[in-house]
Amino acid sequence: MEHAPLPARATTLLLVVLLALAYPLAQGSGWEPDIREFENQDRKNPPPQHEIVFVGSSTIVLWNLPQYFPNLKTINRGFGGSELADSVRYADRIVIPYKPRIVVLYAGDNDIAGGTSPERVASNFEQFAQKVQRALPQTRIIVFSIKPSLLRWSVFEKMRSANAMIRAYCAKHPGLTYVDVEPLMLGADGKPKPELFVGDGLHMTAAGYKIWTAALLPYLQ
Questions:
Q1: Closest alpha carbon to 197 in 214, 185, 213, 183
Q2: SS3 for 130?
Q3: Which end of the chain, N or C, is less surrounded by CB atoms within 10 Å?
Q4: Domains along the chain with CATH numbers
Q5: How far apart are CA 58 and CA 27, in angstroms?
C-alpha cells in the first residue's frame, strides 16, 4: 500500500529528530563518520568545482539548496550539531578540495549555547577564513550572523557580541561578506518571530529559509 507523502512541516520535524539522535555519536567520534561519508559520496559522484559550497551546522544541513537555488550549482557540506571549530578542522577535506568560488558559512550557534565565549567563536571564524583564503586566495567567503531563536534567546546577547566581532573582521579583510539576519528575524516586540521556527524553537521553517535565501541571493549572482 502506498503511503501519502508527509507534509513539509512534518518532514522538517522528522529531519530535526534524526539529526538530534545523530549528535551524540558524531560528537563522540570527532565527526569522522560524517566527513568520511562526504568523501565517499565525492568518490562515487564527484561534485563540480569552482561553484558554491555551503558548510556549517544543522541550519545548513536542513537548507534544501536545489529548491531555493535552482539556477545555481551548490554543494551542501553541513553537518548537524557542529561548531565553528569543526568547520575549521575539516575545511581541507570538505571545502578546499572543491575549489569553490564562494563559500557560505553558518556556525557559532551551537558554540555559544554550549558555553564557548564570543571571543573564541570570533577567533574560530578568523581561523576558518584564513585557512580557506590561504589555499584559495580568490574564493569569497560569506558568513551569516548567528541567528536569534526562540530556544536560545537567553544567550543571544553573547551571540550579538560574537557577531559584532565577526562583522568587524569581515569589514577589514577583502573577500569576506557578513550577512546580518538579526533584523530580518525579529518582530515588532524585538523578539524572534515564532513563525520562522519549527517546534523545537531552533531550526527554521520554510518562511525562515525564504528570508535567508533572499538575503543571500544578491551576493551569489
A1: 185
A2: helix
A3: N
A4: 15-220 (3.40.50.1110)
A5: 13
202, amino acid identity: L
DSSP letters, 138-182, are T-EEEEEPPPP-STTGGGHHHHHHHHHHHHHHHHHSTTEEEE--H
C-alpha cell at 51: 561553484
d(CA 155, CA 138): 35
DSSP state of 136: -
Q: What pTM was computed for the model?
A: 0.87
Q: Can you tell me the distance from the alpha carbon of 221 to that of 9, in angstroms, rounded to the nearest whole number?
A: 29
Tens digit of pLDDT at every position of the chain (221 positions): 434 444 544 444 444 444 444 443 334 347 899 999 999 999 999 999 999 999 999 999 999 999 999 999 999 999 989 999 999 999 999 999 999 999 999 999 999 999 999 999 999 999 999 999 999 999 999 999 999 999 999 999 999 999 999 999 999 999 999 999 999 999 999 999 999 999 999 999 999 999 999 999 999 98
Helices (H), the chain: 8-28, 32-44, 58-61, 65-68, 84-94, 109-113, 118-135, 156-172, 182-185, 206-220
